[in-house]
Amino acid sequence: MKKFLIILHDLSAGGAEKMMTRLAGALVDAGNDVTLLLLTGGGINAKYLDPRVKTVELHSPRSVRAIPALARFLRANRFDAQLAALTHVNVVAIAAALLSGTLARLHVSERNAFSHDKHVNPALMVRLAYSAAPLLYRLIPNPVICVSKGVAQDLVDTTIARRQDVTTADNPVLDDDFYKKRPGRPSHRWLLGKSGAVIVAVGRLARQKGFDTLISAMAALPDTHVRLIIFGEGSLRPQLLEQARELGVAERVDLPGYTADPLAEVAAADCFVLSSRFEGSPNALVEALATGTPVVATRCPHGPAEILINGLVAPLVEVDDAPALAQAIGLQLNTPRHFKRDTRLEAAARFANTPALQTYLTAMLGSAAS
């Protein structure tokens, strides 16, 4: 049995937070002792945390102010491996590990395309973290764990990080028996009582997700009965609704907010679309594949091309190309639903708990043994 520590800011509604809770559970299932440390505390993803995982909350008002407390915790508790996630948390963890003499056991991870993600949050401390991170990544003893080959290459191509400074591990997105589970009942009225094809997308209502392009593509579809549901919350809700009105499709576009069971909604849809401008390794795309529902994705940096094996599993279109996206969606809607279903399930299986856990064990311990 090994002792693992996972370090996060909190358990807010983000893909990285959800994946770290799943990783913690997979590590416990494999017979390990796991502690999850939150620099602040709480968050909606707490509901996904295995009760066998120990939790520690530092309740720091800001991430950087957690460094002394984190250093004290690391000195007082010895772990075989320490894993931090997200750039600003990585910087804090590196500082605390250096102060506590545990840098040799620290691993940090990047969850998104660094060259794009660094422009998202304009806060001064976040910008400083993104400026410092590449230098620290070059100096720390263990390579940065990236969620896809594209994310790893992006770090090498756009920062001072070298190829030996990065490695990869897959997100544990799915339960091992995902293919045996029947989907839940969808909640959206358009999926409960269909009067035509329904497209579903899931994600924050933010520019990164490219939902403006998706709405334009939906409006360009020749079938005027197709409907689009985008599950998620975010600051772009008013702009997206206004765009739908301007394009004359407001009656066929709905933004209902978060859904408690996105897999149930996607499983009932006729097509899932990932329209992102950039990603790391999009979990929503993997979850959609696991339902067997036909999918379409952009060839954005990074992740979709790797997950969809460069278009062999499902169509890939260029970013911000609404006509191409509309054409790909139309093709999927006019293709029998069962076509390539087994291929989609096989592509998703790589991201089940057990195989994904092995990639993390290899990255953190140098072998796939637990």
Overall description:
The protein has helices at residues 15-29, 67-76, 87-100, 114-117, 124-139, 149-158, 189-192, 211-220, 237-246, 262-268, 283-291, 304-307, 322-333, 341-349, 353-365, and strands at 3-8, 33-38, 54-57, 81-85, 106-110, 144-146, 166-168, 198-202, 227-231, 253-257, 271-274, 295-298, 316-317. It is of the alpha/beta class and 370 residues long. A seven-stranded parallel beta sheet has the order 3-2-1-4-5-6-7, sandwiched between helices. Strands 10-9-8-11-12-13 form a six-stranded parallel beta sheet, with helices on both faces. Strand 9 (227-231), helix 9 and strand 10 (253-257) form a beta-alpha-beta unit. The longest helix has 16 residues, at 124-139. It is globular and about 65 Å long. The mean pLDDT is 96.
Helix content: 25-40%
Name of the level-1 CATH class of the largest domain: Alpha Beta
The coarse overall form would be globular
Main β sheet profile: 7 strands, parallel
Structural class: alpha/beta
End-to-end C-alpha gap: 7 Å
N-to-C order of helices and strands? EHEEHEHEHHEHEHEHEHEHEHEHEHHH
Question: How many domains make up the 3D coordinates?
Answer: 2
CATH-assigned homologous superfamily of the largest domain? Glycogen Phosphorylase B
User: Helical element count?
Assistant: 15
Strand content: 15-25%
Major sheet: arrangement of strands: 3-2-1-4-5-6-7
How confident overall, as mean pLDDT?
96
Low-confidence stretches: none
Q: Supply the CATH architecture of the largest domain.
A: 3-Layer(aba) Sandwich
Radius of gyration: 21 Å
- Find the CATH topology of the largest domain: Rossmann fold
